[in-house]
Amino acid sequence: MAANSNQIVVEEVIFLGTGTSGQIPSVSCLSVPRPTCAACVDSVKPNSRNRRRNTSLLVRARVAPKSPRQDVRTHSNGNGTSVNGDAVHTVDPNLSAAAAKSHVRNIVIDVGKSFYEGAIRWFLDYGITDIHAVVLTHEHADAVLRLDDLRDWTMYRDDQPSLPVFLDPPTMAAVSRLFPYMVDETKATGSGLVPKIKFCVFDPTQPFNVLGVEFAPFVVPHGKNCTSLGFRFSNVTYLSDVSDLDEKAYEWIDGSDIFIVDTLKEVSHVSHFGLDEALAASERIRPAPRQVYLTGMCHLMEHHSSNKKLAKLYASGSIGMPVECAYDGLRLDVRDKSPTSLVAAERITASIRQQQLRPTVAAVKQAASKAQAEAASVATAAQPADAGRPIWADAHGRVQAALTAELQSRSAEVSTADLIAMSEKP
Ligand SMILES: [Zn+2]
Ligand SMILES: [Zn+2]
């Protein structure tokens, strides 16, 4: 595998939101005299798995310690490869100082209407302090409307003065209409305090690299006059908004260990998969994924009864793999990789590497020179002492430390077991 792909390992994903655009609960379901909607009524209970915000996923990757062979190359043979044949490693221009000094990459897919509410819940629960990049699936409000809240991660931060947002040309056009001041700061009014976004427009037919994590996009229909993007990264396929899938999409989906797929409700819908379509798409994947998670559900998909039904389908052999409704706050370890998944990951890597080899000789030499100058700061990204530790171990450590400090300040007596129980997610 190319040196670049060995440096970053996608370890986990956290669902920041798993609901449709309107979110769950629907106000109209609860404002009647005697509410009867099972999902909406349950959703207002503490820690309900029926409380669903707009679909959004946090992808967390770890920077693996570099071996001497993977260090920044300063000698090029002129065709974009180093003297020993590896791709010349260049410093990512989108890598902020905040990201460079961390051994973790936090990449958020979609920042829709409920992004703030999801972040304030799950970032605090899991001890997540930074967002290093954002990737957008499409132009709808439930995917882009809270872009403005990203200023929380750029304002007053010397180590991250701007945040890279990766999007395709149609989404860029929509964002330009919605938020002209983000694209052109001279259009800002009032205080002028706007999120500093570095828009990175990618070709949706080609894989691209987000701070070392390789994303393969594929365009899918999303109802009338609209398309969205599915993403394959590592051994995961994420498909939050889709109304149809053609064979070409499976070139990227096949080999996924984990398939996360749009399922609005049991019956079909003009712009989203219904349950039958989501299950049919899951059955089509070769080989069968290890696990399928449904996302983007409306209040007609009550969490517990839907999962019971899905478990019965799997137990009876009606479907060939376990399928479950995801829920807000669900955290998945995605490190286990099947051999077929690795083959697919190699293909993404090869495709990206081919693109990276396109720059001119001058550009490669310039990048190598710059890389040499910045090598010291990049080297701090690798923290061998932490190698192999799951990311959430850090998160739990921080949460537990915070809890301990809080409890000590109150002179309370609690056991370690209590602390661990308190720091576990609901
Ligand atoms: Zn309802
Ligand atoms: Zn949409």
Would you give an account of this structure?
This protein folds into two domains: 3-389, Metallo-beta-lactamase, Chain A; 390-426. It has helices at residues 3-6, 27-30, 38-43, 97-100, 115-126, 141-144, 169-178, 180-183, 250-253, 275-284, 303-315, 339-356, 361-379, 391-409, 416-423, and strands spanning 8-17, 56-63, 104-109, 133-135, 163-167, 197-201, 208-210, 213-221, 227-233, 236-239, 258-262, 291-295, 323-325, 331-333. It has a seven-stranded mixed sheet with strand order 6-5-4-3-2-1-14. A seven-stranded mixed sheet has the order 7-8-9-10-11-12-13. Helix 9 (250-253) links the parallel strand 10 (236-239) and strand 11. The protein has 426 residues and is of the alpha/beta class. It is globular, with a radius of gyration of 22 Å. One zinc ion (ZN) binds at residues 25-26, 29, 37, 39-40, 299.
Instruction: Please count the beta strands (DSSP E, at least 2 residues each).
Output: 14
Contiguous runs where pLDDT drops below 50 for at least 5 residues = 1-6, 70-89, 357-365, 374-389, 406-426
CATH evolutionary superfamily of the largest domain: Ribonuclease Z/Hydroxyacylglutathione hydrolase-like
CATH fold-level name of the largest domain: Metallo-beta-lactamase, Chain A
SSE ordering = HEHHEHEHEHEHHEEEEEHEHEHEEHHHH
Query: How many domains?
Result: 2
Helix content: 25-40%
Strand content: 15-25%
Mean pLDDT: 81
Please state the overall shape, judged from the principal axes of the Cα atoms: globular
> Can you identify the CATH class of the largest domain?
Alpha Beta
Distance between the termini: 39 Å
Instruction: Give me the secondary-structure category.
Output: alpha/beta
Q: Ligands in the structure?
A: zinc ion
Architecture per CATH nomenclature, i.e. the level-2 architecture of the largest domain: 4-Layer Sandwich
Largest sheet: 7 strands, mixed
Protein name: Metallo-beta-lactamase
InterPro entries: Metallo-B-lactamas, RibonucZ/Hydroxyglut_hydro
Organism: Capsaspora owczarzaki (strain ATCC 30864)
Pfam families: Lactamase_B_2 (PF12706)
